[in-house]
Amino acid sequence: MSQYFEVHPDNPQARLIKQTVQLLHGGNVCAVPTDSSYALVCHLDDKPAAEAMRRIRGVDDKHHLTLLCRDLSELASYAQVDNRQYRLLKLGTPGPFTFILNATKEVPRRLSHPSRRTVGLRVPDHRVTQALLAELGQPLLATTLIAPGETDPLNDPEEIRERFQKLVAAVVDAGACPMAPTTVIDLTGDQPALMRQGRGSLARLGL
Question: In terms of CB atoms within 10 Å, which of 33, 94, 106, 174 comes out highest?
Answer without folding.
Answer: 33
